[in-house]
């Protein structure tokens, strides 16, 4: 063992997949002293997750990377169903449009997890020097929970060991083709080690975030039970370049043949992912997973797709898995948190894994960051469990229902006489699809009442729900006229936001209401903003009004939304107009309709740093708004001193 | 002088601005042995050009970088006019919407030249190892034009000298603030030299492309006259972060006050560019340009904008220039070509410079590349002069007209009694704007008849014009359903394209017509494709049909548009459908209407590698199409041998 080192960090993140990188993103944006370690030598380059739902891409927009996903990903608008017809011939049986229950600037995209991680890593680099330390494994954890006082600032002690190249290279199935990495991923292939191989470093941390996957080392250290079981389903998944005359190979397809079910997912470039059931011909209990080769998958697909031809020569990645439907009994012990697959495992076939994991980290990261910085009460961290553990349960339930559907299909087929066609379930599948769409697309998150979510009247914003996402709409910048989706202008930079939905500022009464609100907001902001910081550094106030773009001026709005800075001048980024822009066909001036807000009288909406709605009220309800922030944020200048 | 080296390259590009990088892009995409040198130590980071017109961004789309421009750039939809009212108070006098005469996926974007160069450099890196050699100056040129035979393969000899840091650092005006470079530009700040300082390398080249700016060294070596004159206009331009109560500082604004004309161009982030006239108060002939300081500009703007306040503390860049309206008498001598500012200089105020320069390089690069590769007849290079020299003339004429308009404004104001308001010319300006829009946006290029542009009947595609851009539209991929603008799917990869506008493939007759065309096209492709190359490596055939997406199959189309490859399988990228996609509001199935093509019968359009229309005809007119390619491409397998 090489010489030991010791160091301190506020937040240690173990695992740099979608969950860990989401946490790391917040550390970078909020300027937290943090470290991220991952036992693999390089980031993932191929395979693993690949489905991005629209809410995930909306969040990427708030991080400035959505455009890269949309450029590189594949986009399927329809799910096709195939099944044998009356004569036993495999035929298209219909299709369902993938729509989203509520409007979103983005639709589902299929893109390799490695590329998604590239974009998040670039967003991290854009705002900090935080880098993932690769080839580093956490080996021991001690957590001094007893005297949780101010003297014990770094209660967590973790030993990190630098791995050799051999130890850090993950297992890879034989048969995978050599495919060059993308240009901007090539830097990641160069081995970099902070310490020599074998070095054990002792790290003391205030928070530890375990994003270390289904076999989470962190979870095991905490002795948190991982409940559930492996199902009988054994699947193969293969990313390859197909050679086939099956006509829908580039369409998302659920295919039921007499020889099994095949799920076809077209991907970026000419890659297609196939989910291949393996256990059908064998009795599942005795199925030998390790005996599966790439040819096993190839031959299964050939049989399922028959009489269509099928083969491939280029394989990007493949693996075999047994669906483990498991849920961690809790998501943390004190300041040690779990996120992502460490909390929930399920079938990858619904394309939710990367989304829920990323959103776990996205939910947790800013809370940890604001607690570390002393901006927010540490009690906000309790909402991580209430919000995400519940969602993890829903995910497992959903997976059970969805997988049962696939299973039922297969069992039915096995049960019936092979000379007759399996029953057509595409209508039922389509209906399940519609029913669960808000959940799967991430458009409903079901965050319950908490210090971060005030469930009060919704009369002033009929289509908005506290604890849910702020419904995206296109608005125009008042100062410049540029149209933008709200997902982009509500940047994920670690700040809470007060949105003044200012209504029609041409009306004198309304202007007075907003002006009066503005004065009170300045006082509110001062209570939570450190004396030498800018007044928008903890809570940013933005306004969106309904007057036609050229009929009001920036100066009609209170100073809180066009602050002055000695060097930067006035801030032109905070006032927006819900009006038409002939340049952008989707910018029709319907944002208030989307939100269900009165175009004259407006409303106030408080958003958490992750763009979820924390509080809603009338323009006059500064008392309610203040109460909300008092429960969430540390007061730095008591009201009495202002 | 350090030790001399000698080397050979097919194409030497001098200057790595927008024109040089456009040429370099084609070298990279076409796999040409090329070098690019630039005398500056680093690429431009701030200042210089900043206006991108929609056609330029369409071409960027074909290079895969448009999304980055749209994400980072600023977008103004309206041009605002300000002038004194009857009482002499400076007021808004109206506005013109920046629209584009024909539909484009993109609108004008304002973004620093340095960022635009970053994106082109990244596109170059994505397909080759070609890197700009910085801090290298060309010092002598000899060109052996006499025996233009095959024995003389490298007729051009250039000596390149590696500069010291001092020599390679461009002059920078005092007063510019330290602003950090973007994350992905920081690598460019590191000094890299291929050779030690002072090394003189002798390079022998087949082609030399001088993209070395208004003071072009290359142009001087060729003794090509640069005709025109400096005008009396002396302007300052400053990129700064404004501190002002002028309400339209973030709107593109043409402002006429009694104290002069100000052009305001909002830019990315919080930067605003101002064009400031300097010569008004002084008699121009005696104006001392070198005496201008940043404060001179600051004070001029204060005076013009008065009674509004104005100042700035952060200055990104500034300079002073005297408008030189000049045109090179020719754009080449033999194999030595000029592009960009080396050919034309004019006022930057119309925001065309970077666009015309980039498009010069974009027009020239693929012609040189295909001539070097022996794919095309070298005679296609003559069209560079006929196409771009003519456009340069039009540019100079346009600039004269447009600048006269600004000048006239000012002269009027000086002539009239200062107590009365200057005449309102915003309507006239607006009208000039509309009249010249097709030209300024790059939607009309006026490329005349040549071997590359066949001007025949337009009956089969009423809105398309040979020599003009292929009008952009959104279509859906037949194999996968993904909607895409044609600007993206017609990738700039160095290939000619035959677009089969296949009409309604549900109709038996039409299917027969297309099928018969397909057979003949395969024969055509074989004549121009080297025996061991893929059949789509020189000319790619794509099809766009009008049947609803799910009512035809890929297999209905001829093999030329879904080629088979032993490793890659069938090609799914070549057949597209002009039909609706509920996912994409702009995908309405109107492409054939945009092109003026009959939805049943279709047409054929041949596109040059730069997406300009080379030839159009009926589905049966393979003879005409063949004739077109015979004039352009080298036959590698004569028809008689097929």
UniProtKB/TrEMBL annotation, chains A, B:
Residues annotated as domain Phenol hydroxylase-like C-terminal dimerisation: 447-635
Listed A to Z, the keywords are: FAD, Flavoprotein, Monooxygenase, Oxidoreductase
Q: Does the keyword Oxidoreductase apply?
A: yes
SUPFAM superfamilies given in the database record? FAD-linked reductases, C-terminal domain, FAD/NAD(P)-binding domain, Thioredoxin-like
| Keyword presence, Metal-binding | no
> The FAD-binding domain covers which part of the protein?
9-398
Q: Note the InterPro entries from the entry.
A: FAD-bd, FAD/NAD-bd_sf, Phe_hydrox_C_dim_dom, PHOX_C_sf, RIFMO-like, Thioredoxin-like_sf
Spell out the molecular function terms from Gene Ontology. Answer: FAD binding; oxidoreductase activity, acting on paired donors, with incorporation or reduction of molecular oxygen, NAD(P)H as one donor, and incorporation of one atom of oxygen
The protein's matches in PANTHER family, at most eight in alphabetical order, are given as: 2-MONOOXYGENASE, PUTATIVE (AFU_ORTHOLOGUE AFUA_1G13660)-RELATED, TRK SYSTEM POTASSIUM UPTAKE PROTEIN
Which family does the entry's similarity section mention? Answer: Belongs to the PheA/TfdB FAD monooxygenase family.
Name of the protein this chain belongs to? Phenol 2-monooxygenase
The uppermost taxa in this organism's lineage are: Eukaryota, Fungi, Dikarya, Ascomycota, Pezizomycotina
């Amino acid at each position: 063992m090489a010489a030991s080192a010791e160091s301190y960090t506020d937040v240690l993140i173990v695992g740099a997949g979608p969950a860990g990188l989401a946490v790391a993103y917040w550390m970078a944006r909020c300027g937290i002293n943090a470290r991220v370690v991952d036992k693999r030598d390089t980031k993932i380059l191929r395979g693993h997750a690949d489905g991005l739902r629209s809410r995930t891409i909306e969040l990427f927009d708030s991080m400035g990377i959505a455009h890269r996903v949309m450029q590189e990903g594949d986009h399927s608008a329809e799910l096709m169903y195939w099944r044998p017809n009356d004569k036993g011939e495999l035929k298209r049986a219909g299709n369902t449009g993938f729509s989203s229950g509520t409007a979103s600037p983005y639709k589902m995209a299929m893109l390799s997890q490695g590329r998604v991680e590239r974009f998040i890593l670039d967003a991290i680099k854009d705002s900090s020097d935080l880098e993932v330390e690769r080839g580093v494994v956490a080996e021991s954890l001690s957590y001094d929970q007893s005297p949780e006082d101010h003297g014990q600032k770094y209660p967590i002690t973790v030993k990190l060991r630098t791995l050799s190249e051999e130890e850090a290279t993950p297992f890879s199935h034989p048969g995978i083709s050599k495919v060059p990495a993308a240009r901007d991923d090539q830097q990641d292939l160069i081995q970099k080690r902070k310490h020599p191989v074998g070095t054990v470093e002792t790290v003391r941390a205030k928070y530890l975030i375990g994003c270390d996957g289904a076999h989470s080392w962190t979870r095991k250290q905490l002795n948190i039970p991982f409940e559930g079981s492996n199902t009988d389903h054994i699947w193969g998944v293969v990313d390859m370049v197909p050679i086939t005359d099956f006509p829908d190979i580039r369409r998302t397809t659920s295919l039921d043949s007499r020889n099994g079910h095949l799920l076809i997912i077209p991907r970026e470039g000419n890659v297609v992912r196939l989910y291949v059931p393996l256990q059908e011909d064998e009795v599942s209990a005795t199925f030998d997973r390790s005996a599966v080769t790439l040819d096993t998958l190839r031959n299964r697909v050939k049989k399922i797709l028959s009489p269509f031809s099928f083969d491939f020569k280029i394989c990007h990645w493949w693996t075999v898995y047994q669906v483990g439907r498991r849920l961690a009994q809790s998501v943390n012990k004190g300041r040690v948190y779990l996120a992502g697959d460490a909390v929930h495992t399920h079938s990858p076939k619904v394309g939710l894994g990367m989304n829920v994991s990323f959103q776990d980290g996205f939910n947790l990261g800013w809370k940890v960051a604001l607690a570390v910085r002393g901006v927010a009460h540490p009690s906000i961290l309790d909402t991580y469990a209430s919000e995400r553990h519940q969602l993890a349960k829903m995910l497992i339930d959903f997976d059970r229902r969805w997988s049962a559907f696939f299973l039922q299909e297969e069992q039915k087929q096995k049960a019936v006489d092979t000379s007759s066609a399996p029953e057509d379930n595409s209508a039922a599948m389509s209906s399940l699809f519609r029913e669960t769409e808000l959940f799967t697309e991430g458009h409903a998150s079901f965050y319950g009442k908490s210090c971060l979510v005030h469930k009060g009247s919704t009369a002033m914003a009929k289509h908005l729900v506290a604890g849910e996402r702020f419904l995206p709409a296109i608005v125009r910048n008042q100062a410049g006229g540029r149209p933008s989706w709200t997902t982009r202008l509500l940047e994920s930079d670690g700040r809470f936001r007060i949105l003044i939905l200012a209504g029609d500022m041409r009306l004198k009464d309304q202007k007075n209401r907003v002006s009066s609100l503005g004065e009170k907001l300045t006082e509110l902001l001062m209570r939570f903003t450190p004396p030498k910081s800018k007044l928008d550094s903890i809570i940013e106030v933005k306004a969106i009004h309904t007057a036609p773009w050229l009929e009001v001026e920036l100066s009609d709005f209170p100073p809180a939304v066009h602050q002055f800075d000695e060097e930067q001048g006035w801030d032109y980024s905070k006032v927006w107009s819900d009006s038409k822009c002939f340049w952008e066909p989707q910018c029709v001036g319907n944002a208030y309709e989307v939100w269900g807000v009165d175009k004259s009288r407006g409303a106030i909406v408080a958003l958490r740093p992750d763009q979820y709605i924390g509080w809603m009220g009338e323009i006059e309800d500064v008392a309610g708004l203040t109460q909300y922030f008092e429960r969430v944020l540390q007061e730095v200048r008591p009201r009495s001193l202002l």
